[in-house]
Each structure stands twice: as structure tokens, then as C-alpha cells.
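Hello Y.,

Per our agreement to keep a running log of every chain we model this quarter, I'm adding this entry. I've kept the format consistent with earlier entries: sequence first, then predicted structure.
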Amino acid sequence: RDRSPSRGLGDVYKRQIEVSKICLGTMTFGEQNTESEAHDQLNFSLENGVNFIDTNSFAFGVHKPEFNDFACTSSSVVNNFFVDKEGSTWVVTLNGVIKLSKNGSKCLNYDKDTNNNNAFENKYAYSLMQDKEGIIWLSTSKGLNIIDENLGLIDTSIEKVFNKLIIFTIDYTSSELLLATESGLYKFNKKSHKINKIHDPTNEVTLARYNHFMKNKDGSYLFATNKGVLLFDGENIIKKLVSLQSRLPTKNILSIYKDEKNRLWIGTKSFGLYMYDKSIDDVSHITSVSYTHLT
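Predicted structure for the entry above:
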């Protein structure tokens, strides 16, 4: 494989643009891969010198339903969205789930369940995920639901298992779901419908509020919580990243992301954005001034 990183394209806007000889095509991302696989493929390409990405000139469209279009309106608050294996876009709003067809011409509003008229009465929707079997799971302020596409409804029959547990985000393995909740980390068996809480040996972070996560290549997870940045080995052990947390002004972490240079970007509550560069063991507070110097 030719690993020579780049070739010049000439003086564009008075700057020398260097791009790789190999171009990564992303037109079918979301159809032939999952969101997680797409992130892995992008990171692998960037790590190996590819900086030329072909998105097939997709144009952004803004979906603005009419006020009285009840089929496509549930809430203006968007918590999460993803593209399923067929190319349809699912949008999780505070009060419902909207499915937009691949070309945006059709819209379905999943706001009713198989047991009553309104699936979102006295509860909120937070996140949506499709597992390898094609099942779409929805996390809410009362537990876990399943989207039944055949009936166009939401199946809330397993909700009672969670006893009104607020679930913010979901990930999956072959037989289990990993649930990040307001009061700890749980595993849910998809077949037996049994739920087990993952306990920290010191009991220090067992009751943490798990706001957001990112999955590492080795199968472990980094979680943004109100107890700081936590590392979960994917099985049973949760650890605090003490050396990192001691250099942040707060334990209340809202989001976390790792870029192609292996740097951690950490979003905090009330204190802004921080970046941790493990290669030089440095934590930087990102401001409007310092951001311009990042590469």
C-alpha cells in the first residue's frame, strides 16, 4: 500500500493545500455501516495520512414542518438523532420520535404505544439506538422502549422492569445493552429482560449521573458524569481518572470526545471546554483566543 501522505493541489486561496492520494468515500455512511463504525473508519483513515474525504456533495436541508402538521411535529427540543441501516433519519425530540425517509419526503411521528394513546405522557425521550439485529431501542425518563416499525408504535411493555429509571444513552453488545442513567451504569439482557447494576468496588461512583460516553478501540468506555471522567473496562470495573480530574475545575462533565490525534475534548457544566493531550500530559482550557492556535 502506498503510504506517501500527500500531493500538492496548487495555490488555492493563496494557501498551499496538501491532500492524500487516497480519498475516503463517505456517501454510504449510515447505510452500509453504523455510526460507531463510521467514526472508527474516519479515525483509521486520518491516523494513516488520509485527509481527503468525498461526501458526494451532499447538501444540507432544513426540515421545518407546518405548525399544524401533527405527523411531523412533537417538540422543537432535539436530544439525539441517527441514520438507520436503510438510510432513514430518526430524530429524538423531548416529546416523541420522528422518522424521516431517506429523501425527506415522508415523515412518521412515533408518539403512541401499544398500551395507550400517548407514549410520552409524563415522560421524555433522550436517545435512540439500532442494534445489529435491527431492533431500535429508545431511552426515556421512565426506562427503555422498543420502536415497532411494523405497527408504527412504541412498545412500552418492558418499561416496568426499570421502575422509572431515567436512561440517557445506550450502547450494545451481542446480547446486552449498556445503559447510562441518572443513577449509575447498568447492563440489560435483551433476551431475559434482566437488568443488573455495575458496582464500583469503592462504591464512590456507583450512583454517578452518566451523561455521555465514547467507546475506545479496546472495547472500554469513557463516561462523562457528575463525578468526573470515568473509565469502564466494558465488563465490571469502573475507575476514576484521578490524574486528569485533578486538573479540571469541576467534576460535573457533560460530554466527552476523542479526536484523530488521540486528544480528549471535555465539555463541562459552567466552566466551558477543555482538551487533554495525553502525549504531552497537558490539559488546556479552550477559549476563543487559544482555539485559533490549535491544529
